[in-house]
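sorry to bug you again but im stuck and you know this stuff better than me. what follows is a protein written twice so to speak, once as letters and once as C-alpha cells for the fold. id like you to explain what the C-alpha cell line says about the fold, in plain words if possible. anything you notice is useful, everything is just below.
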Amino acid sequence: MPVFSRRFLQVGILVFMTLALALSAQAAGFSNASLKGSYSFLTNRRTANVNTPQFAMVGVMTFDGAGNVTGSYTSISKQVVKNGRLGGTYAVNSNGTGAISLTTGSTAKFAITLNSTAAGVAQGVQLLRTDDTSNEVVSGTAMLQAATAGKYTVASLKGNFAFQYNPWTDDASLAEDGGTGIFSFDGKGNVKGSATIMYGGTQFGGPFTAIYKVNSDGSGTVSGIGKHGLQIAFALNSVAAGQAKGLQFLDTNTGDGNGNLVITGNALKQ
C-alpha cells in the first residue's frame, strides 16, 4: 500500500508539472506575429468633459506581424466627418496585452488585449486609448477581417445581416434612442431592410431601401436609408471564402439636437 501511494504521488506530481509547463508555455505564446492581417475597428468616446464633443471612428487597420500598422478611417464629431490614412507601430507582450502607437493620420496611443486566437492569430482585439488625459474614455474593439489582406467589392457583402445601434450624446434635449433590424445586401450594391426603433419611449420603424459600396480595403458606405436619407460608414470583418460575416458602422450624417451626437453599431450575418 505505501509503495502504491508513493507511485501514485509521483505520477500525480509528474502530471501536475506537465500541465504547469504546458499552461506556462501557452500563456507565454504571444508576439507581434499574433496580430497579423486586416482588422475592422470601431471606437467611441465617452466623456463627462463639457468642453469635449462626442466622437466615434470606424475603419480598417492592417498589421504586418512584425510591429507595423497601416490603415484607413472615417470619424465623426459635432457633425464633421473626416476620412484619412493611418500609420504607426505596435507591440504585443507574451501574455497577449500590448500597445498601438498611431503616428500618422489620427494620432493616438492604445493599450490592447488580444482575444479569440486561432491558428496563432488573434481574431479580436480590445482597444483603450491611453494618451487622453481629460475626463473621458475612448475605447472599442477590432475584429479580424482576414489574416491576409484582400481586395474587396460589393460582392464581398451579400446576404442578411442583423444590426443593432446606439447613440452617444451629452445633449439632454434629445430623447433616448436605439434600434435593431435587418440589412439585406444583394452583392451588387443594393440593400433592403427593416428596422425597429425606440425613440423617447415610442416605437418606430419599418422597411427601407438603400445603396451601398465597398472599397478595396473592406471599408464602405450605405446611403439613402429611410425617408431621411441616412448614411453610414462601415468596415467589414470575419471574411470567409470572400464573404464578410460581420461589420462595424457609424452614422455619418446625423444632425439632431445641438450636433453633439454620434451613433454607432454592428451587424452580424444571419
